[in-house]
């Protein structure tokens, strides 16, 4: 064995080395001045010296005294592992490697979890690269003599093999990295030897093939001797590599630490790439294949990057055939890896595999194709490159010297058609922008061939060429629009953005060139395209968006005014032909884009726009007057004319200020007539409401921009309030669509004209502030309850009879969600009273699937605004549900009924929203309990004093919030509860009194401990001892401070308790004495006089204006910035406190955080949670078998390749 031989050689050489030049060193450290007095570790850590000179100095030292130099190298590896121990010369001579390693393990610093390879900071940033470079240079400089002396390499390999099998992570990690880099360096040496052997063999063959007279026998002998030496060196290097591979790699490639496994896989990929003749075979490839199933993404990533280096070289593909056939399915499945970096590299690897013919089946390719629509941009771009190489790599070759074909005859024509076909076959027609973005980096030249695209749309097909179908033309226009947008905006579509990126000068120049080219092309081509597809709404809508990306200066500089006139003429004709809202809005946006005062074409476009609007408004006023005069006699044709004209005006009013035409009067007259007669067509009312809304918004925008006259403010105030009253009247309309439109607009107007409109230096708008009256608030809430919180089957009107159609149901749900969101914004911005949210919050459980996210966010925002009022709203919602249940089931209901259990479950959900920070929510929880107690005793029993109050069962619901009370507050709440109790109530034990009993128990749970936390300042017995061992909890200071202010909260309305505190029902006999609590503070004993006063003061203030010192008007309610509900709460607890219950959402319930007291060992309590690593260096915390039986830790069981 190599290890045994190495040890013997080391001892023999050690005897020879005694008395050498090592006398000038101490424990292997140089004692001379300058750089020589620094250890190898310090030199490599600083990284200031050239590694070549560092290694040369060590080699000179090795030649003088190899024992001392080798001791330097051993200490270098030990110190690089973070161990502060030093191997002495005596240890080196007399101890085995295992004994040395055991001694070094004992020297580790237990309080530190970091070592050089993992320490962060600029000093250690380059340590790993310097460490690896040192090993590579060391082998390279020693490759001609020293590595063959059967001493240095044997000793180093033996040491690294022993360290790599250590239970200490730092030793395993550092030694494995060193061994793998050592192996890589030896592979380079073996490769050079192989090349030299081949050259020597060729020289020998050439010399031997000469004629006998010309043959030099002495040269043949020299070549034979040289080849023999090279062969011996090659065998020795192979033995070294074999020892490292079997002693380190085979065990560490499945180590329990992911970084160590990643190092192994990364390096074996380098070996196979460098020395493919020796390593690129199934015996080594199988390790990469197996590790592709690793649980950690970084290891899977290293597998893929290693394989990419192999597949990139096409000459190696033949050797990879068996591996590819065996593991191809795994690589394809990794394109859907949960780690996006792994998925990207898997797709890139499959792109390289495309070079091999017929390896990937059509099904394999299709699984990659659909990833071009991925929301993660790197994945989509990688898939786009795969798609481009698979479908577009084979172009028609152009003949040399022939004129370049353009338009429909260009080589790109068929590729563009292929893109269209792929887009249609994918059946994701709303995602063309994502397809274009995916192909942009690899196929921008193809996608920017707009001349070819317009030629395919406008020119007649060539003889024998099949024309595009209507569906294909629609898809091509959509793709063309997306390419224009991508070229003009230079950023990915919505949902794929990676943040704002600063464009380089080259990218900016490309963007300007593309905008110029697209403007010159489409300024000429767009009018004929609009003329050809004028009657097709979908095509026209996309085409009309093109001018938004033009460089409008080109119209003037390029003398293209006649094409502008043609464009304006086509847009006018489209407005006159179409009544589709999307088409009209596209026309409006196009006029808005062209009406830019910075360009000389503004006057021409403005005149055309004004003429069009003049005609539309005149026509509308004329038609409306006739329509209103005819009244009930108006026919459908008249109504259609009014509606179509109103649609056009409304669409333009969205983007253009039409204040000069006074549309408010005519629209208000129309709406008023609709209210009076009640027979106005719904679409006319809907668009009239929208148009009037735009009138008010434009008027407000003009007043907000600058100084406003009082007359204008008065006018707008009158119009706004009259319009709000009109919308309120339409809330009672028989038509659902009209009511929904009136409700949405009314919510928007109330939000815009709320008290927040005066912020930001707009105090002059204060006369416009409008607060809704109680009647309006009530109607808005009634609308939500009647039109949003309904069963799907009941919503027959809003889906227009498409109740069985799934798309119709989804659309109806989307509409209802928008209505609820509009009303919730009024709650969040305090436009309506927060207590109205109670009717929303109580629906959380019943409609969780439909509106749970909206209600949850509303609760979170209201808590940020006012925690106390939010808590009062939550308890009010529970009270409302309780009253509804009583009215339905009566006062003798069964507490196991589904209705009561549902309310109790909702209370539990509400309780979870308060999170784990009891200090922040202390005042809110106190107010919640106060309101709940008062409600429970509000209605006395009509049967007399001995009977239960009618609402007593509500205490069972209220007990769900007891765990959120701070310890010192539980006793205070309990004393407040006793204000409402009589002496007889405390003695009752019948079932009807169980809610009171359970609620009292929930308040008394942990009550004995409460006195300890409150009175910690008064007692020193036990606690003083404990304080020396552990740090006090972080919240102790805040708790002790807030206890005094908390006592003020409860004091004002509290009188002397009716009865003495009852004894606790929990046993205290078995309390652990090591907790350091004073026995005198059990709940059955009275508190000291000053503490009684503190509790009395706290209770008396329950009358009550809560004003804890830590109460802020606006604060975050959770670590995430949003309210924590059951699904997303992440309790921060120590591992030892983790509950074994099956449901994580019951964590707050399943563990009594208020009474649990975990005594961790002092050494653990001193550390932060982030420092408690599973492989911590404390020998007592290391699992002996975790590394020794590492083979059993592999997460996969795949048979080796045979």
UniProtKB/TrEMBL annotation:
Residues 1012-1025 have a biased composition (Low complexity). PROSITE patterns: SCD. GO terms for cellular component: chromatin; chromosome, centromeric region; cohesin complex; nucleus. One of its GO terms (molecular function) is chromatin binding. InterPro entries: ARM-type_fold, Cohesin_Scc3/SA, HEAT_SCC3-SA, SCD, STAG. The keyword Cell division applies. Residues 249-334 form the SCD domain. GO terms for biological process: cell division; chromosome segregation; sister chromatid cohesion. It is found in: Nucleus; Chromosome; Chromosome, Centromere. Keywords: Cell cycle, Cell division, Chromosome, Chromosome partition, Coiled coil, Nucleus. Residues 190-243 form a coiled coil. Pfam families: HEAT_SCC3-SA, SCD, STAG. Residues 1-31, 1010-1074 are annotated as: Disordered. Part of the cohesin complex which is composed of a heterodimer between a SMC1 protein (SMC1A or SMC1B) and SMC3, which are attached via their hinge domain, and RAD21 which link them at their heads, and one STAG protein. Belongs to the SCC3 family. Component of cohesin complex, a complex required for the cohesion of sister chromatids after DNA replication. The cohesin complex apparently forms a large proteinaceous ring within which sister chromatids can be trapped. At anaphase, the complex is cleaved and dissociates from chromatin, allowing sister chromatids to segregate. This is Cohesin subunit SA. It comes from Myripristis murdjan. The lineage of its organism: Eukaryota, Metazoa, Chordata, Craniata, Vertebrata.
């Amino acid at each position: 064995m190599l290890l045994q031989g190495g040890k013997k050689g080391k001892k023999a050489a050690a005897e020879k080395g005694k008395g050498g030049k090592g006398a000038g060193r101490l424990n292997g450290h140089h004692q001379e001045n300058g750089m020589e007095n620094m250890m190898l570790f310090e030199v490599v850590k600083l990284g200031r010296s050239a590694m070549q000179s560092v290694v040369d100095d060590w080699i000179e030292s090795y030649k003088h005294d190899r024992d001392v130099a080798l001791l330097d190298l051993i200490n270098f590896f030990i110190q690089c592992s973070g161990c502060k121990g030093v191997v002495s010369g005596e240890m080196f001579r007399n101890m085995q490697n295992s004994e040395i390693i055991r001694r070094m393990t004992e020297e580790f610093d237990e309080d530190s979890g970091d070592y050089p390879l993992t320490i962060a900071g600029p000093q250690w940033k380059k340590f790993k690269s310097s460490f690896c470079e040192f090993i590579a240079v060391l082998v390279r400089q020693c490759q001609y003599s020293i590595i063959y002396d059967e001493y240095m390499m044997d000793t180093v390999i033996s040491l690294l093999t022993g360290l790599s099998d250590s239970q200490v992570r730092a030793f395993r990690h550092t030694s494995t990295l060193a061994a793998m880099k050592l192996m890589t360096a030896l592979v380079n040496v073996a490769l050079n030897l192989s090349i030299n052997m081949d050259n020597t063999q060729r020289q020998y063959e050439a010399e031997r093939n000469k004629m006998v007279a010309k043959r030099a026998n002495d040269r043949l002998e020299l070549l034979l001797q040289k080849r023999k030496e090279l062969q011996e060196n090659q065998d020795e290097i192979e033995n070294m590599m074999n020892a490292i591979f079997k002693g380190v790699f085979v065990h560490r490639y499945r180590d329990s630490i992911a970084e160590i496994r990643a190092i192994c896989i990364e390096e074996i990929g380098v070996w196979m790439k460098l020395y493919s003749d020796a390593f690129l075979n199934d015996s080594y490839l199988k390790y990469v294949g197996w590790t592709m199933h690793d649980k950690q993404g970084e290891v899977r990533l290293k597998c893929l990057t290693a394989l990419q280096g192999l597949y990139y070289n096409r000459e190696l593909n033949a050797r990879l055939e068996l591996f590819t056939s065996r593991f191809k399915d795994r690589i394809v499945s990794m394109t859907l890896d949960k780690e996006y970096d792994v998925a990207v590299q898997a797709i890139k690897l499959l792109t390289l595999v495309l070079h091999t013919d017929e390896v990937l089946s059509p099904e394999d390719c299709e699984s990659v194709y659909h990833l071009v629509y991925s929301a993660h941009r790197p994945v989509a771009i990688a898939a786009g490159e795969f798609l481009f190489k698979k479908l577009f790599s084979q172009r028609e070759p152009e003949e040399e010297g022939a004129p370049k074909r353009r338009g429909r005859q260009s080589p790109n024509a068929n590729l563009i058609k292929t893109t269209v076909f792929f887009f249609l076959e994918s059946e994701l027609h709303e995602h063309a922008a994502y397809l274009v973005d995916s192909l942009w980096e690899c196929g921008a030249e193809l996608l920017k061939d707009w001349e070819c695209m317009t030629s395919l749309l406008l020119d007649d097909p060539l003889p024998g060429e099949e024309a595009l179908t209507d569906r294909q033309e629609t898809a091509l226009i959509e793709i063309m629009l997306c390419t224009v947008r991508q070229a003009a905006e230079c950023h990915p579509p919505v949902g794929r953005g990676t943040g704002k990126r600063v464009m380089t000068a080259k990218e900016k120049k490309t963007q300007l060139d593309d905008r110029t080219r697209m403007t010159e092309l489409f300024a000429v081509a767009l009018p004929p395209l609009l003329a050809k597809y004028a009657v097709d709404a979908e095509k026209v809508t996309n085409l009309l968006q093109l001018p938004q990306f033009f460089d409008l200066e080109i119209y003037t500089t390029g003398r293209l005014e006649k094409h502008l006139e043609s464009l304006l003429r086509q847009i006018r004709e489209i407005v006159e032909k179409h009544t589709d809202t999307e088409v009209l809005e596209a026309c409006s946006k196009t006029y808005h884009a062209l009406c830019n005062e910075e360009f000389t074409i503004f006057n021409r476009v403005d005149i055309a726009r004004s003429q069009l609007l003049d005609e539309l408004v005149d026509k509308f006023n004329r038609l409306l007057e006739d329509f209103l005069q005819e009244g009930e006699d108006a026919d459908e044709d008249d109504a259609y004319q009014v509606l179509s004209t109103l649609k056009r005006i409304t669409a333009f009013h969205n983007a253009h200020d039409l204040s000069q035409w006074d549309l408010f009067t005519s629209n208000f007259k129309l709406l008023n007539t609709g209210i009076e007669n009640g027979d106005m067509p719904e679409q006319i009312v809907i668009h009239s409401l929208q148009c009037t809304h735009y009138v008010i918004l434009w008027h407000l925008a003009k007043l907000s921009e600058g100084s406003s006259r009082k007359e204008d403010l008065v006018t707008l105030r009158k119009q706004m309030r009259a319009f709000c009253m009109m919308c309120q009247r339409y809330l009672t309309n028989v038509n659902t669509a009209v009511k929904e439109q009136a409700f949405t607009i009314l919510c928007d107007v109330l939000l815009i004209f709320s008290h927040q409109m005066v912020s930001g230096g707009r105090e002059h708008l204060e006369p416009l502030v409008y607060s809704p009256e109680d009647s309006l608030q009530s109607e808005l809430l009634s609308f939500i309850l009647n039109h949003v919180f309904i069963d799907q089957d009941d919503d027959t009107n809003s889906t227009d009879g498409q109740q069985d159609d799934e798309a119709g149901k989804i659309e109806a749900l989307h509409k209802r969600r928008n209505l609820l969101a509009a009303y919730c914004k009024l709650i969040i911005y305090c436009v309506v009273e927060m207590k109205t949210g109670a009717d929303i919050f109580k629906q959380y459980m019943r409609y969780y699937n439909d509106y749970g996210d909206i209600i949850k966010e509303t609760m979170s925002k209201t808590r940020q605004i006012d925690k106390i009022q939010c808590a009062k709203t939550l308890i009010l919602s529970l009270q409302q549900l309780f009253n509804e249940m009583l009215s339905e089931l009566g006062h003798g209901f069964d507490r196991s009924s589904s209705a009561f259990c549902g309310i109790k479950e909702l209370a539990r959900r509400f309780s979870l929203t308060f999170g784990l920070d009891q200090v922040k929510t202390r005042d809110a929880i106190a107010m919640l309990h106060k309101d709940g107690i008062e409600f429970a005793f509000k209605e006395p029993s009509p049967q007399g004093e001995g009977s239960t109050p009618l609402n007593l069962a509500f205490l069972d619901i209220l007990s769900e919030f007891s765990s959120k009370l701070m310890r010192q507050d539980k006793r205070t709440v309990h004393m407040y509860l006793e204000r409402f109790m009589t002496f007889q109530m405390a003695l009752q034990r019948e079932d009807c009194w169980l809610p009171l009993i359970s609620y009292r128990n929930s308040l008394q749970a942990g009550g004995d401990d409460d006195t300890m936390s409150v009175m910690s300042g008064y007692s020193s017995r036990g606690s003083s001892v404990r304080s020396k061992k552990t740090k006090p909890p972080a919240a102790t200071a805040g708790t002790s401070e807030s206890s005094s202010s908390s006592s003020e909260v409860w004091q004002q309305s509290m009188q002397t308790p009716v009865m003495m505190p009852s004894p606790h029902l929990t046993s205290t006999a078995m309390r652990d004495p090591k907790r350091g609590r004073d026995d005198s503070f059990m709940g059955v004993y009275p508190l000291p006089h000053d503490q009684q006063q503190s509790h009395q003061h706290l209770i008396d203030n329950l009358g009550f204006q809560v004003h804890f010192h830590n109460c802020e008007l606006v604060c975050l309610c959770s670590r995430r910035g949003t309210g924590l509900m059951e699904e997303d709460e992440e309790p921060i607890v120590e591992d030892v406190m983790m509950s074994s219950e099956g449901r994580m959402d019951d964590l707050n319930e399943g563990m009594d955080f208020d009474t649990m007291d975990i005594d961790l060992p002092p050494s653990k309590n001193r550390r932060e949670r982030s420092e408690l690593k599973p492989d911590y260096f404390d020998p007592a915390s290391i699992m002996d078998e975790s590394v020794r039986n590492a083979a059993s830790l592999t997460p996969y069981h795949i048979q080796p390749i045979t």
